[in-house]
Every structure is written in C-alpha cells, then in structure tokens.
Amino acid sequence: MKKLVVTLSAFAAFSGSALAADMAPRAYTKAPVPVAAVVNWTGCYVGGGFGFGMWNQENTRYNDVAPGVRVQAGETATTGGRGYLGTVQAGCDYQFPALGTGFVVGVFGDYDFASMKGTLNYPVSTLYGDEKLSSAWSVGGRIGWLVTPSLLTYFSGGYTEATFDRTDFHVNLAVPPVSVNYINQQTYKGYFLGAGDEYALSFLPGLFWKTEYRFSEFNTKTNPVYTTATNTYADSSIDSKKYTHSIRSELVYRFNWGGPVVAKY
C-alpha cells in the first residue's frame, strides 16, 4: 500500500511538471504611457478682463487772429492721466507648423470701458480742466510662437480709436469751480502695437489666460475752444497729440472649430 501511494505521488509530480513545460509562457505587458493632451489653438474665441492704463499728451494753443490764420500762443505743454479699464474681445486664430515648431496667426477686435483721468491745463492761461479717456476700441492681428504646446507668446498690432469726454476749464483756485471755457468730446484715431502671452489652463478645456502690454499713438487733433456762457467759439483752439500705454489681463474661452483636441504619446 505504501509503495502504491509513493508511486502515485511521483506520477502526479511528474505529470504536473510536464504540463507546465507544455504551457505557453505567460505574457507580461507594461502599463500604458500616460497620454498628454495637445492644445488646439485653431478656432474662434471670446474673452474679457481688466487692466490699468496711462495716457500722456502734447498740447499747443493757437489763437485765430483772422479767418484761416492761426498764431501759436506759448510753448507746447505736456500733461497726462491714468486709471483703470475693463475690456471685452473676440477673435479667431489659426495654428500651423513651421521651422520644426508651432506658430499661431489671428485677427481680433476689442472694446475698452475706461476711466483714465488727468488734468488738462489750458496753455498760457490760469485755466485747467479734468480730462478723462472713457472708451477705446481696436481691430488688428497677431502672430505668435508656441513656446510649449500650452504657452503662446505673441506680438499684435492694428488700428485703434480712443474717446475723451468733454473737458470744462475752470479758473485756478476758484471756489466753487465755475466753467469758463470747454472743449467738446473728441475721438482720436491711430495705431497700436502690443506684446503678450497666453496660456491654456488645464483644469477646464477651452479656458485660456492672456496678459498683454499695448502702446497706442494717435493723430494730432485740433480741438476748438468754446465759451461756456454763450456756447460760441472763443477764437482759440488746442492741438493735442495723445499716446496711451496699457496692460490688460483676460480670461479667454476658445471654440475649437479647427478639430478636436488630439493626443500626443
């Protein structure tokens, strides 16, 4: 009996070893490499944000001594102002490969709600007034380089207009201040140049954060001066040359009509 048990045990061990030898080797697989999302910059977008701005100007007063004859009164004076702005924007971009990296070109338009205030001294007089840049709009384009798939650095440029509200001139140190002369609300036309960065935020697909510095230069504009009491021309005018500097930060939501976000291994 003992010999039978030993014989069966040896047979079972031999059979198990032979079966294991006949089985195919077990396949081992590595864990898949994590998939990284690549931002698609092709598409249209809307955005909004806030910023801070400054403006300065060169003002020259002229007296009309005869029809069509203007005589400069004194030296050109420089003044300026500063304040805050809110901005809204819409545009479209196109991403393309070049030189072994990625580039983005686009067009856009934006509108600024502003409150940038300063003091305008009436040249060669004791009069002064509070002047405010109240709004501006721009249309233009940009071109940028993708530093990483999620980070774009770019330059922008285009056409712009800025509106300055009516300015009432008061006698210096007069209490209470009484308007003596004024210039009407005026819109200045010019160009802008800018530079900025835009970054794709990973926690919400389609959401981007953009920050841009912008410089604008406007054409010289002749502003007729009127007498407040009679609303008649005061035979005087101020030629004003204006410049603005601003920095703005916006949240942008992008609609990728150029295709879905792709994966990179």
UniProtKB/TrEMBL annotation:
User: Keyword annotations for this protein?
Assistant: Signal
Source organism per UniProt: Bradyrhizobium sediminis
Q: Which PANTHER family match?
A: BLL7405 PROTEIN
- The protein's name is Porin family protein
Family according to the record: Belongs to the Omp25/RopB family.
Q: Does the keyword 4Fe-4S apply?
A: no
Signal peptide start-end: 1-20
The answer, when asked if Signal is one of the entry's keywords, is yes
